[in-house]
Write a structure and sequence with these properties.
- Two copies of one chain form a homodimer.
- Helix content of chain A is 33%, strand content 26%.
- Chain A is an alpha+beta fold.
- The longest helix of chain A has 21 residues.
- The first copy, chain A, is built from eleven helices and 15 strands.
- The two termini of chain A are 31 Å apart.
- The first copy, chain A, is globular, with a radius of gyration of 22 Å.
- In chain A, strands 1, 2, 3, 4, 5, 6, 7, 8 and 9 form a nine-stranded mixed beta sheet that branches. Chain A has a six-stranded mixed beta sheet with strand order 13-12-11-14-10-15.
- The interface between A and B is large, with 63 and 64 residues.
- Chains A, B: Its main location: cytoplasm.
- Chains A, B: One of its GO terms (molecular function) is L-glutamate N-acetyltransferase activity, acting on acetyl-L-ornithine as donor.
- Chains A, B: Keywords: Acyltransferase, Amino-acid biosynthesis, Arginine biosynthesis, Autocatalytic cleavage, Cytoplasm, Multifunctional enzyme, Transferase.
Chain lengths: 417, 417
């Protein structure tokens, strides 16, 4: 069942938002099934396949202990910068699994390539789940044999894929945007998983973006890096950076547009649509943070630079005390200012303003008497926005996170068992 | 009621551990009372007073928004490097309270100095509690008038003081050690508060160390910095660095020893006793972390440097996922290795060993099959030790923290209200 999105980006008109997922762009099929890695009968193996070798790019976790599938995907992309298929399992991260784990990840790649009749280096591999346990390869291989016949460009395929990549996630995360390039309709879509072990440091989850736009590999890779820094790298659930995070983008070129470059007149629209899709997925991950009941958005302005604003925004949105206060709808802005103060960034301690929603609580670093009842009502909503203005420069950033709840502890106190 | 400690430092014999607190060293008196800042009738104002101006040193939070009392204490110490009294309130941090807050902190200093008949710059001020609310000065001033008559060198005075500095703490934190310097008995004692907003970055709580040793101010200040880095700076509860943290040391000189220098033959014993007191207080803060049921100790060895080992140890002990797994007694070492990997330090991903207690779970970065029942039994204890050996160099460090529990969330979801 697809989510219906009726919001349109009226403020820019650079692109339109539609109801769609990774199979909406021309040339893509997807599917998912239960192969036996998860204890319950939920999907745990999925694939996205393109009709042609698609221009592709990826960003990976910065964790030193990168999981085996990341090495395999990196090896695939290094060959031609193109991918035709992504095979993903959930329920087991295939991380810290030594030589066996690496062999298993290569086996996933070759088995799926064989089924599709394509070169192995056109296949990317991704895994998510428990660290340090060997993959049940008999399950995976049996699943890989069944997957190709189920692949479909219909919404059903994207739905099955979206389900297959989830772990502790409660909802699937999808977004889709369309724009026109030289009279051709171009579509950008994505889906993602991520709920725990989420902290901004390159891509911090599994994310898959598809588009039918035509563009060069370098152009796609550059856009992916830039957009990741403003979206996926600006979310945190628990400050833990996973071993398996990866964001993959594939461009089929089947929209038939003139190849997009940064000089193309439609570039701003394409880049905006691409960023929209990634931002929606990133916010959906934050909102679906383990145990979360609310999305927290932090906007920092007036910093000496955008980088400085980013560091401060991440410091606030990552504070366990801010997150707990939001859960309890406690207007404890003292924790916000404390997190500004320990972010390690230049801050004038005399000139800070803080708003919770539209309620000003601190002006020029001096407490403002505010309506506690109004603050409580605001904090009881499902989205809480903190705005911090440092009044020092023009640097700004946004970051997203979620509240810290009993359920985060419950989920993570017995994840393996 | 004092805690009876019968453990002796047999491994070193450099000093002895005794049952004592901040009034055990010669020359110190203390007291505490309820002046009305806390809603319940718990003590919220306390003082330590020395019979003579004591050599003194302090370390302060690195948070940009240092609370008003820290500025006042800094001003006091800058005069002569000596203190004769410390006045502390809990229930209100007097932080982010603007000009009024600064005036209030200076007023606390002068009011207490007046009561004692000493110069204002011999008084240090410390506050802990809610950020951003004005101090009820009428309560504080009334309390300050009553305090002097209650000051006593007896255990009762230290007990009342220890109670007066607590906020969400469940237990008071005290430690005491004695050694002999040129035939004279020298005592070092300390007490501390801290339970939430605890993260290693200079002193991360309120801590008070008293000693009757004679030594120069520079020597005391240097020792305090060195020891803080190995003790208070190696604990974390929630990754939040407070606006009010301060560690103060006072040396009355009344033991009558030859002044201690780093060249003195008794220096290793004095430094060890000083470090013992600070480490006990730091571990007590970690164990009493908000909502905590267990102390987590992380030992990192084989790093390229001690600094690198410290960063890795802090990364592990600060991981919400590691903390949740310890709460649930889940032997999820994958989260430990993930925290090693995102610490931003040089690590060879092929050579890491991990032990939980005496149980090896990872050898040369490859999972070891271990006895799950034994691991569960170990993790159900009240202290959990993770040992990580990187096999790269001789750098080592220890860090302490606590598990993440439902109660941490409960306590912090409604702290103000």
């Amino acid at each position: 069942m697809m989510q219906t999105q009726v919001v349109h980006a009226k403020e820019t008109q650079l692109f339109d938002i539609i109801d769609g997922s990774v199979t909406t762009p021309l040339g893509f099929r997807a599917s998912g099934l239960h192969c036996g890695l998860k204890k319950t009968a939920r999907n745990d193996l999925g694939a996205i396949v393109c009709d042609v070798p698609a221009i592709a790019a990826a960003v990976y976790t910065t964790n030193v202990f990168q999981a085996a599938p990341l090495a395999v995907t990196r090896a695939s992309l290094e060959e031609e910068g193109k991918l035709q298929a992504i095979i993903v399992n959930s329920g087991n991260a295939n991380a810290c699994t030594g030589k066996q784990g690496e062999a298993d990840a290569y086996r996933m790649r070759s088995a799926f390539a064989e089924q599709l009749g394509i070169a192995p280096h056109y296949v990317a591999v991704a895994s998510t789940g428990v660290i340090g346990e060997a993959l049940k390869m008999e399950c995976v291989e049996q699943g890989i044999m069944k997957l190709p016949e189920q692949l479909t460009p219909l919404a059903e395929g994207a739905e099955q894929f979206s389900q297959a990549i989830l772990t502790t996630d409660l909802v699937k995360k999808e977004a889709c945007a369309v724009l026109t390039v030289n009279g051709k309709q171009v579509t950008v879509a994505g889906c993602a998983k991520g709920s725990g072990m989420i902290h901004p440091n390159m891509a911090t989850m599994l994310g898959f973006v598809t588009t039918d736009a035509a563009l060069e590999q370098d152009t796609l890779a550059g856009l992916l890096r830039t957009v990741t820094n403003k979206t996926f790298n600006m979310i945190t659930v628990d400050g833990d950076t996973s071993t398996n995070d990866m964001l993959l983008a594939m461009a089929s070129g089947m929209a038939g547009n003139e190849p997009l470059t940064e000089q193309h007149e439609a570039w701003p629209a394409f880049a905006a649509a691409f960023q929209y899709v990634c931002e929606q997925l990133a916010k959906a991950i934050a909102r679906d943070g383990e145990g979360a009941t609310k999305l927290i958005e932090v906007r920092v302005s007036g910093a000496l630079s955008d980088e400085s604003a980013s560091a401060i925004a991440k410091s606030i949105v990552g504070s366990s005390l801010v997150k707990s206060a939001v859960y309890g709808s406690d207007a404890n802005w003292g924790r916000v200012i404390a997190a500004v103060g320990y972010a390690g960034q230049p801050v004038n301690p005399e000139t800070v303003d803080i708003h919770m929603g539209s309620i000003m609580v601190l002006q020029q670093s001096t407490p403002v008497v505010f309506d506690e009842a109004a603050a409580l009502a605001y904090l009881k909503g499902d989205t809480v926005v903190f705005q911090v203005d440092l009044h020092m420069g023009s640097g700004e950033a946004k970051a997203w996170g979620c509240d810290l709840t009993y359920d985060y502890v419950r989920i993570n106190a017995a994840y393996r068992t």
